[in-house]
Amino acid sequence: MLQGWQSALDAHGSQALHLRDLTGLLTLVCGLVWVVVVAVLIGAVLRRRPGAGLVPEPDRAREARIGRVVGGGVIATAAIITGLTVASFLTTRNLADADPEALLIRVRGYQWWWEVAYLDPRPDRVLLTANEIHVPVGRPVRLQLVGADVIHSFWVPSLAGKMDMIPGRDNELSFTAERPGTYRGQCAEFCGLQHAHMAVLVVAEPPDRFAAWRRAQLGAAASREGEAGRGRAVFLSKPCAACHTVRGTPAAGTLGPDLTHVASRRTIAAGLLPTTPGALAAWVADPQTIKPGSTMPMVSLSPEELRAVTAYLASLR
To answer: Would you say the pTM of this structure is higher than 0.85?
Structure first.
């Protein structure tokens, strides 16, 4: 795909642009080499040969020309390999450049969702969210990538290359989003049954909008009344509160995603469903049917409780 929100050829980040240019150079050079090789092969096949029983006369001039062609081919091969090696080295060096002023985000991969933590020297400024990364346009971003259970691989093709997430080892990936937009990423390392349903969205927005988003996300969940308030009471009385955190409430679980502002995210279940009341209700009612093998169990709820919990989750913006 030449365009799209998950295309390495539709580059919107400086690192992705470096990779796209290197890919284009490799494709062009290899294509030209292929054309030359095929042309020489066709010429050899079509070349007129001596008749049967005739012994070709030695032709020193022709042998000298063949020697020069072979020597030129060896030199050209060495030059091409050297040039591509240098281009690859320079691209890798550009990708590895880290800006000390970069926005620092830790992304931890689970089966099958992403924990996203915006790190800050001040503990009250540390922000925890899930499956959606917001970044300011034009500012370098440095991701600390960690695998929590098995090997995952973080890949947002329009912004940067792939980087593995290995348990017990911290890897880093840097990128700068050059344009506003929403870019889809995907786990690129097979990590189990729901590997294909482990997506991540990166939302690049102007710095002022990013700052406003971060301020809002740092706030606790507002108290609710009516049906959402009843849903809050149900949520806290069920196992939900043992697995999830909702800041501003007694819910402080760490096994599942932080739900403080879950309704502000574009998707739930790591990109599997849009964040709508219907999708929230379906997910809470029977997560194993929607995403078999996920660690979220089915919690027994009456129809009234399900409606109330859905109203509560939909109010968490």
So the answer is: no
